[in-house]
Amino acid sequence: MDRRDLLRNTIFGGAACAFGPLVLGGCGSSGSSAAASDTLRVMTAQSLSSLDPIWTTAPGTRMFGYLVYDQLIAMDENYNPQPQMAEGWTTEDEGRSYTISLRDGLKFHDGEPVRAQDCVPSIERWMARDSFGQILAQFVDAQEVIDDRSFRILLNRPVLQLPAALAKLSAPACLIMPERLAKTDPAQQVTEAIGSGPYRFMADEWVSGASSAYERFEDYVPRDEPVSGLAGGRIPAIGRIEVSQVSDPSTAMSALMGGEQDYWDVPPHDLIPLLKQDDGIEVNRRTTSSVYYMMQFNHLQPPFDNLALRKAVAMAVDQSQFLASVSAPGSNEACYSYYSCESPYASDVGSELMRETDMEDAKAALAESGYNGEKVILLATMEGPNAGLGQVAEDLFRRLGLNVELVGMDFASITQRRTNRQSVDEGGWSVFLTAWLGDDINNPAVHPMLRGAGEEGYSGWASDPELERLRVQWAVAGTESEQKDIARTIQERAYANVPYVPLGSSRLESAYSKDLTGIFDTPVNVYWNIGKSA
Fold first, then answer.
1. pLDDT < 50 regions, the chain
2. Domain identity same for 222 and 363
3. Of 423, 158, 139, whose CA–CA distance to 298 is shortest?
4. Is the same domain home to 353 and 239?
5. Does an H or E element contain 397, and which?
6. To bridge 328 with a disulfide, which of 101, 269, 503, 527 should be the other Cys (CB 3.0-4.6 Å)?
7. 118 is in which domain, residue-wise?
8. Contact at 8 Å (CB) between 524 and 169?
9. Rg, the chain, Cα only
10. Distance (Å, rounded) from C-alpha 272 to C-alpha 310?
11. Shortest CA distance to 168 belongs to which of 53, 333, 290, 295?
């Protein structure tokens, strides 16, 4: 008996099968499963609770979206937009007109061809939901279908960032749906998954909060170029992908070591040393950007509609305490920038509010804020690598003197509850904890939480019209120097208004079987191009 079998029998035992074949494919009775050699079995702590990658930014739905759907334009590893579904694009009228043509042979999973008539409403629906898209929409006069394979976007002023907007990799990405689905009200969820991406969603095998399955789309035509970031050839190299939500880290570790699973997207830092001891497992920092943690306030409801109280909390935050709960020493970094610290716009400007204060300063600010003991409902995930953040925040609030109640739930439930704008007595909330990859917050246009759009913006609904004006100014700036100046002003504005509190960053690693082939560096965990050695 080798060490894998020993671990499986002693740590994992027979208990894993109690979770059922939908959670751990190796337990046996899933008659629909393909042969293990042609199946990639992925574990994640994130659930697939929505089939609409435009409606939600939840990580589970983003992963689903990139398997099932495709993009007109995609970002390469150098963050340059490249044609994806598009054959290419041309500009006219000094950048006020973009004509985009589609590659030949594109099909949806129902066999229908992808047409320009599908692309136009898909872009319109995305623009209604996405922060960058909402900026772009201000300058779009019209979209015109030229023929089945080409359409034109007409602008009222030059927007050099248009290809970058359509190629954005952060959620929601601009993914193309059939016309009948793309015309769904942006405020309502699409419930049918018909894409044109490398994998078809197996709707009859989906168990929300447990598992999902995908099969190779045989009619998918990859690009000829090598994969680069999210651009290039998205090759469905394996016949079937099974994704299981496994929230218990010990169960996940044992399943990977026992050969019952192939890929674990984000193992917690305290299990990394054990995983590295297994000769059959590769542990690698596959994602190219760090993860950034945030504390998001509800600006509509007491007590955090009070700017003085938001500033008092920011003064009390010690990023090192939060980072110690989610990552190992040496793999994390304090970051006081409102952009990722890997971004060209990263800066400490304005951060004296956090860097040069402590708990005693915060308590004094709290005493002057007018806080009167109102209930603070803190939403935090109890699953996956971020599970420790909630306890740290709860302890911080209690030491500061807030009347806090920690509500632990899975992240999918948080994404539902955070849309409630009512008081805490009516099922609302006061603050929640979340995390984004650095690529999601690299600049003012893509950053979903660096907003001032009030009830039209991200959950939390911070209102700052000047911040919104500056975001638009950044998006249409003519030079990089202008953009950097505007980004700096936005950061100063953010620290003056505190839409949320940055909690620092950490570098994440993935763990996977050494039998896997085609693993490539990527901004987000995606699973095309991955196969298995014979």
1. 1-34
2. no
3. 423
4. no
5. helix 389-400
6. 269
7. 73-182
8. yes
9. 23
10. 36
11. 53
